[in-house]
Fold this sequence. Notes:
211 residues, alpha/beta, 9 helices, binds S-adenosylmethionine
Amino acid sequence: MASIPLKDKDKKVQDTGFLSQWNLFFRQFVKHPGMIGSIIPSSTALVNHILDQVDWANCRLFVEYGPGVGTFTRAILERMHPDATLLAIDLNLDFVAFLESRIDDPRLKVVHGSCADVRRFIKEAGALKADYILSGIPFSTLPKGVGETICAETHSALRPDGAFLVYQYSRFVRRLIDPVFGEVSESLTWRNIPPCRVFRAEKRVALAQAA
Ligand SMILES: C[S@@+](CC[C@H](N)C(=O)[O-])C[C@H]1O[C@@H](n2cnc3c(N)ncnc32)[C@H](O)[C@@H]1O
């Protein structure tokens, strides 16, 4: 596995250790519980369970919603093709600043904003459609109507046969993704606090439409 170069310009964010990441994550949870949705970052077992589902050789645009302190971000970059792009979108400016100061990889673009604007961010990154979109945002605590918009925008932002990978603590999100995506499969990872559900929603487009 390749290692991800870390930025070292800012002394205040030099400590790349687990504790400082957990500390920032916990403080953001206390400030914005509804936006963060979890008290600690995802486990390595959950990261591997999800990222093992990706066809890395053929992935050129990977989008991550809600990267937080970069638990998935680093692991995605380790697996990603040298010519691929990772677009990470987070609503929390402290997380965006943290990631920008910590990870020095030209394949990573971190943007501050809502993933409801994913299509605009993809366009601004000079790309067309995403191969995969991964989401850890807390769908069950989003303001009314936002989850529906995000799922519809996500479907439009994916290429035909692209996949939306979602990890959540409950099955709430099924009521949002099922009406939009043709095919949804589900699994459960016990080795996470708390145990986490993973949904894989495939964008299936009829041949006539895809042409
Ligand atoms: C549970 S944390 C996940 C953090 C990290 N991916 C992990 O697995 O440890 C949820 C993240 O979603 C972000 N978030 C919440 N709503 C969002 C939205 N509408 N658009 C983009 N990011 C959002 C939060 O700021 C937070 O970073």
